[in-house]
Design brief:
12 helices, mainly alpha, about 280 residues, two-stranded parallel ribbon, single chain
Length: about 280
Amino acid sequence: MPQHHDVACLTYSKEDNNCCSIMRPPILLFALQSAHSLQSSPPLAFAPSRASNNCGGDVLRHRQQRTKQYLSDDNEEIIPINNDRSILAGESTFQKYGRPSDINSDSFGPLLPIAEAVDEVTGGWALTYADLHPATPRTTIGQAFLATNIFYAAGGLALGVQGDWFYGALTELAGIVSFIYHYSQLEFGKNRSEVRLALLVDYFTAGAALICGGIYMVQMGIDTIPLDALLTAVGASVCLALCWVWEFGYPYIFWHSLWHILSALTGYLIGQDHLLSTGG
């Protein structure tokens, strides 16, 4: 088969299997593409072709058109299809994109002064968020991630039924806003003001629930808190910290899902113990 520069000509023609026509199972094509990408080469081109002595040239032109869709932000490096090198390298969102540049009145409205203050105090870090590509709200992993917010709903409802409607409501609200934030994170992707706004509101609601739980712990006395609540609190804190170590894709989803589960369980255990200690 004739060679055309560095492009692998993988085409299929129903009319003539003898001209530049190679049939491969899909899994082999994926393996070939991945191996080719890791060598810092442009993505492989897959194009239908009719029987012709010049079919290799057609594939080369098709490949040149396709690679334009995968240029990086600075238009200097070709990003392999479904293989973002910054994600593979474990580079955090803040390291990759730097300080947000879209904090303005159009994005945050009346919350702009708070957003600017949070951005200033944290040096831009607090309003950056993980790029969860390739997960979306329509993928199984994305949906499973969103479903972990149900633990807040369950814990808040249980506390409310037992008599602590205030802390239960805060926990419920934290779960609702968390769902909205992560849905927008999955839906809109990286560097979007809509996601930053949802993140800012998530800080408020999650913070309110955490502060209430902290007050309960002080009222009861730290030495009286059940061991299981302390263990889940430590586990939740570790998982949250690891979200900032691996702030990208599937690793972030894994650790942040555990944060949802363990923090919701911690809140429920503390709220339940508070009810018992106050005779509620």
